[in-house]
Amino acid sequence: MQIDLSGKNALVTGSTRGIGRAIAEALSSSGARVAIVGRDLGRAEEAAVAVGNNSKGFAADVSDTAAVTQLVADVEAAFGGIDILVNNAGITRDNLVMRLKDEDWDAVLNANLRGAFATIRAASRGMMKRRSGRIINIASIVGLMGNKGQANYAASKAGLIALTKSVAKELGSRNILVNAVAPGFIETEMTEAMTPDARQALGKQIALERLGTVNDVAGAVAFLASDLASYITGQVFVVDGGMVM
Known about the structure:
Elements: E1 9-12, H1 18-29, E2 33-38, H2 41-51, E3 56-59, H3 65-79, E4 84-87, H4 102-130, E5 133-138, H5 142-145, H6 151-171, E6 176-183, H7 189-192, H8 196-203, H9 214-225, E7 236-239
Parallel strand pairs: 1-2, 1-4, 2-3, 4-5, 5-6, 6-7
């Protein structure tokens, strides 16, 4: 059996680069038309051209509830509906909890958690009418284990996991499946800045002794978006090479 998303429309937030971009490419290569979402419309449109399959770029700040509601309306108008929603957009503002400012706490929770809530609330209405849909939230292993200097980020991802389970229970009767993917340490622009010693020390904490790739995460998302995962909901798929067991 192969992953076939032909005829499906997907919305992926934070998809102009990194993990989000890889997710958009994986969904597109499986047949889906993808709404590429970023803060900058130009970058989103460029990414949409590269992703192909009649994908289209959109701009929105996910921490702005009104902007998210309008985004969903615009994508539905352009695509005729949303079958797959991937909440990937997120930010970090790291600091030790004693030094963490209110505005840094609020910014991370608003973008990472409230943004996902607002997108789910808006997109699920159409899914409920069609009695079909997939919602996949990109969490993190720090939402399961915590991390020094990331109290705000960890709290947002833990909240996202709880949101996933709650919404899965609410929407299951309408055949809308809601799951989360929790990546571990993934090769991105941020990890490229790590020193060789830091990378080696990190590798020792991972059973596979390597960092993951964006495609490792994208593959899990594509699976959950497909009919192969038609009896899976409310789950957290940990993609971390065996770091958290």
